[in-house]
């Protein structure tokens, strides 16, 4: 059993920062990919992990958003 819950709390904090009321429709795959990118950074991910993340975002449909 871990002696500290700080690492788990950091992950929940990161998830709450990513999944806001404006971004509440993120799929589990997208949220996981974003958390990996934020936590690990692009340089620390393996080529296989990076490829999987890129494929997740390629599958997303294009949206017409007027800003």
UniProtKB/TrEMBL annotation:
Cited InterPro entries: HATC_C_dom, RNaseH-like_sf
HAT C-terminal dimerisation domain location: 1-37
Name of this protein: HAT C-terminal dimerisation domain-containing protein
Annotated SUPFAM superfamilies: Ribonuclease H-like (SSF53098)
Entry GO MF terms: protein dimerization activity
Spans through the membrane: none
UniProt cross-references to Pfam families, sorted A to Z: Dimer_Tnp_hAT (PF05699)
């Amino acid at each position: 059993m871990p002696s500290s819950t700080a690492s788990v709390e950091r992950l929940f904090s990161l998830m709450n920062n990513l999944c806001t009321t404006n971004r509440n429709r993120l799929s589990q795959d997208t949220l996981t990919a974003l958390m990996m990118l934020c936590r690990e950074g692009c340089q620390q991910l393996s080529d296989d992990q990076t490829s999987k993340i890129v494929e997740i975002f390629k599958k997303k449909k294009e949206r017409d958003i007027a800003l």
